[in-house]
Automatic annotation (TrEMBL):
It is a multi-pass membrane protein. Residues 7-413 form the PTS EIIC type-3 domain. The chain crosses the membrane at residues 30-48, 80-100, 107-125, 145-162, 183-203, 286-307, 393-413. The keyword ATP-binding does not apply. It holds the Pfam family PTS_EIIC. InterPro entries: PTS_EIIC, PTS_EIIC_3, PTS_IIC_cello, PTS_Sugar-EIIC/EIIB. The phosphoenolpyruvate-dependent sugar phosphotransferase system (PTS), a major carbohydrate active -transport system, catalyzes the phosphorylation of incoming sugar substrates concomitant with their translocation across the cell membrane. Keywords: Cell membrane, Membrane, Sugar transport, Transmembrane, Transmembrane helix, Transport. It is found in: Cell membrane. This is Permease IIC component. Signal peptide: none annotated.
Length: 442
């Protein structure tokens, strides 16, 4: 098909370059570094904020949990404050480490320089009466993600530039490598301090807002565009178009939109912690739980169709794919069907996930399900993951409904494809039956 040729020969090289571009790759790796911390922080939030109405809960386990959480809320929330609430610091370090590795520089220097630069930009120390010097944590959570990206890239680029020009302090031979490496970062650290600290002070005096807030204001239109029905639909559509020609679409698209989704998650977590309305819908777990049900393309229902198929190929694929699909892994479906370069299955494979995403977006916006404020591993079965991440049993019901919607989209195309395979299998069986039996030599 000409359309597949266009995707493979025109779009595929462009998105392959985007996905492997060194700065994009470093941003993706840096944000991924923060995922374990968001998972831990999310569970801490759930434990410290039980999903029960204190005015209606009178006894039993729910009342005991509420009373325990009320008494020890600060202590129970401590893992959140030490993980998700400072996630941008981890992201800055991850970006610096990844980009330094790409340039074959000392990765530890890249990480610590990025952390220092980020703190200079986002958490300059304050004098508080009766307390002393403190580091404000206002912009260490998701609101500082874009500042962390700037800090991580800037730090390593300065490190690389000075290294290329040999503007470093060289220690004599025989000095232990750890000490030599620490002095290797001295000049870049000095340059970064005199470069970033005065600039952030001047910008704050000119704009009246801290540097991270100024960056967030600049990115606000993009954040709004991503966290919208169009953003949900287009990102999923693009991911599936890439998958249809053999590119791992989820990974490619994630490299671009993951910082936005992580920022949304952090903002929701902070609002939930403060007892305020959560501002965002599109988060990493929204994608995993409501859109990729059973894996990319929302193929869980298709697995159950395959299990009952009259086609030997599809039935075998369904048996192989069932257990992975429960945990949102569907490479057996994608390559066993196959979905790649398959004109018959192209339409449902490309459209089921975006349609599920838009339905889930409006269901959340209308308050039919709670907004997601926690993160769980993407391999968590979708109904359970959605219920935990939103602390709302209705989220699990929505997942099951969306699985049925995806199944309805796939079913007519699946039946057509099944008939095609049955004809092929019948022809292959007839050809095998007509083949003469091999003679046995005396």
């Amino acid at each position: 098909m000409k359309f597949f040729d266009f995707l493979e020969n025109k779009l595929m090289p462009v998105f392959a370059k985007i996905a492997t571009q060194r700065h994009i790759s470093a941003i993706r790796d840096g944000v991924i570094v923060s995922i374990p911390f968001t998972v831990i922080g999310g569970f801490s939030l759930i434990i410290a904020n039980p999903p029960f109405d204190p005015n209606r809960t009178t006894g039993g386990f729910a009342r005991a949990w509420l009373d325990f959480a009320t008494t020890y809320k600060f202590n129970l929330s401590m893992p959140y404050y030490m993980t998700m609430a400072i996630m941008s610091l981890f992201i800055a370090m991850g970006i610096g480490y990844s980009l330094a590795r790409h340039y074959k520089l000392n990765q530890l220097n890249g990480a610590v320089l990025s952390a220092m630069t980020f703190l200079l930009m986002a958490a300059q120390a304050l004098n508080v009466d009766g307390v002393g010097r403190v580091l404000p944590a206002t912009y260490l959570d998701g609101t500082g993600i874009f500042t962390a990206i700037i800090a991580g890239i800037l730090s390593v680029e300065v490190l690389r530039l000075l290294k290329v020009r040999n503007w470093t302090i060289r220690m004599p031979d025989g000095v232990p490598p750890a000490i030599a490496n620490s002095f290797d970062s001295l000049v870049p650290a000095f340059v970064l301090v005199i470069l970033t600290f005065p600039i952030t002070l001047v910008l704050k005096s000119l704009t009246g807002v801290p540097f991270p807030q100024m960056i967030m204001n600049a990115f606000k239109p993009l954040v709004g565009a991503v966290d919208s029905p169009f953003g949900v639909f287009f990102s999923a559509l693009l991911a599936q178009l890439l998958w249809s020609v053999g590119i791992h679409g989820a990974s490619t698209v994630r490299a671009v939109i993951l910082p936005f989704k992580q920022a949304n998650l952090a903002a929701n977590a902070a609002a939930h912690m403060a007892g305020e309305a959560m501002p965002h819908i599109f988060t990493p777990m929204f994608w995993s739980a409501f859109m990729t049900i059973g894996g990319s393309g929302a193929t869980l229902a298709l697995v159950f169709f395959y299990l009952k198929s009259r086609s030997t190929q599809l039935r075998s694929t369904g048996k192989l794919a069932l257990l992975p699909a429960i945990f949102n892994i569907n490479e057996p479906i994608i390559f066993g069907t196959p979905m790649v370069f398959n004109p018959t299955m192209f339409i449902p494979f490309v459209l089921a996930q975006p349609i599920c995403g838009v339905i889930a977006y409006y269901a959340t916006k209308l308050g039919l399900v709670g907004r997601i404020f926690a993160d769980v591993p993407w391999t968590t079965p979708a109904p359970l993951g959605a219920m935990i991440a939103a602390a709302d049993w209705r989220a699990a019901v929505l997942v099951l409904f969306l699985a049925c919607v995806a199944g309805a989209i796939y079913y007519p195309f699946y039946k057509v494809y099944e008939r095609q395979l049955l004809r092929q299998e019948a022809q292959a069986g007839a050809a095998e039956a007509e083949r003469p039996a091999p003679s046995v030599a005396d």
